[in-house]
């Protein structure tokens, strides 16, 4: 058996005699103070309060299953609430497990944060499994996101092959997450496109009313003096295009029935306007109150 005093504990050790020994699977014994362990971890507290088998013996607390040095760092954290970057780098996974088992939320948070920061395609599957076991939802989600963004790289790792052979449930869980993530991306993209189209249409509607009511540049109502509206439109970026479309609609020989696509587009804009117009009595947009078979006559092009 190796006997080793944790150097971090010596300062505290001078104040009171250590009364517990932590025993690791590697046989390392770390002397410590029961009141400090008990105040940092409710699980250790209940182990300490359990009646001793032999009256005189110093209490032994086994912390098995992780490397000796990880246990040292764990005990050091219980004393000081600190551990170095280097220790985190080396023992982050073990410390997360210990913080979960011994209920030390402060350490668990730190581990979750540090492990998230150090995630890569090589360790993501191990960390994911641990996050699942240790009930660390933030870390679990971070791993899943990393997996869905880098699945091509992870798919070729030994870790993935091992997981496929040994944990088909987790494999399915990961694949489902990736599927849902892809669907979410598609849905967002579709929503954005729909929103863009809606904005374009709504601007076209405003612009149509503007041209048919106020007149703009070279197109306007019959009773309006075109000379007043000579300059290029400053209100709508689509105004020029829409004016060209209106001029075309007024002059086209082919028309909608003849299969003219530009006329068809203009016709759809007039129909859309008439379906949303809230003042058809005074409205000057052609076709607003009725749908004649012919092209409207009250809009003309002043060229
Ligand atoms: Zn305009
Ligand atoms: Zn046409
Ligand atoms: Zn109208």
From TrEMBL:
Gene3D superfamilies according to UniProt: 1.25.40.420, Potassium Channel Kv1.1, Chain A, TAZ domain
Query: What Pfam family is a match, any one?
Result: BTB
According to the UniProt entry, its GO molecular function terms are: calmodulin binding; zinc ion binding
Keywords assigned = Metal-binding, Ubl conjugation pathway, Zinc, Zinc-finger
Which cellular component terms (GO) are annotated to the entry? nucleus
Q: Record keywords: Zinc-finger included?
A: yes
What species is given as this protein's source?
Olea europaea subsp. europaea
Query: PANTHER family attached here?
Result: BTB/POZ AND TAZ DOMAIN-CONTAINING PROTEIN 3-RELATED, BTB_POZ AND TAZ DOMAIN-CONTAINING PROTEIN 2
Domain of life, per UniProt, equals: Eukaryota
Question: Which Gene Ontology biological process is one annotated for this entry?
Answer: response to hormone
- Domain BTB: residue ranges: 18-87
From the UniProt record, give the pathway where this protein acts: Protein modification; protein ubiquitination
Protein name listed in UniProt: BTB POZ and TAZ domain-containing 1-like
């Amino acid at each position: 058996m190796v006997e080793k005093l944790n150097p971090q504990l010596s300062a505290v050790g001078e104040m009171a005699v250590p009364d517990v020994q932590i025993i690791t699977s590697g046989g390392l014994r770390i002397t410590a103070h029961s009141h400090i362990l008990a105040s940092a971890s409710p699980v250790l507290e209940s182990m300490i309060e359990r009646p001793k088998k032999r009256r005189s013996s110093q209490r032994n607390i086994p912390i098995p299953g992780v490397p000796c040095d990880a246990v040292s760092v764990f005990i050091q954290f219980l004393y000081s609430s600190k551990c170095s970057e280097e220790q985190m780098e080396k023992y982050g996974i073990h410390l997360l497990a210990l913080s979960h088992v011994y209920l030390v939320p402060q350490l668990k948070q730190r581990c979750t944060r540090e492990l998230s920061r150090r995630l890569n395609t090589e360790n993501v599957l191990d960390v994911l499994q641990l996050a699942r076991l240790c009930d660390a939802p933030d870390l679990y989600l971070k791993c899943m996101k990393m997996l869905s963004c880098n699945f091509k790289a992870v798919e070729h790792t030994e870790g993935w092959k091992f997981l496929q052979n040994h944990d088909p449930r987790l494999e399915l869980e990961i694949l489902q997450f990736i599927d849902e993530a892809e669907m979410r991306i598609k849905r967002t993209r579709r929503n954005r496109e729909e929103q863009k189209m809606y904005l374009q249409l709504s601007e076209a509607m405003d612009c149509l009313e503007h041209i048919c009511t106020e007149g703009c540049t070279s197109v306007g109502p019959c009773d309006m003096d075109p000379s007043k509206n000579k300059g290029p439109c400053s209100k709508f970026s689509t105004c020029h295009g829409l004016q060209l479309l209106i001029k075309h609609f007024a002059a086209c020989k082919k028309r909608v029935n003849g299969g003219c696509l530009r006329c068809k587009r203009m016709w759809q804009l007039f129909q859309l306007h008439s379906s949303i117009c809230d003042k058809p009595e005074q409205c000057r947009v052609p076709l607003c109150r009725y749908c004649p078979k012919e092209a409207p006559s009250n809009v003309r092009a002043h060229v």
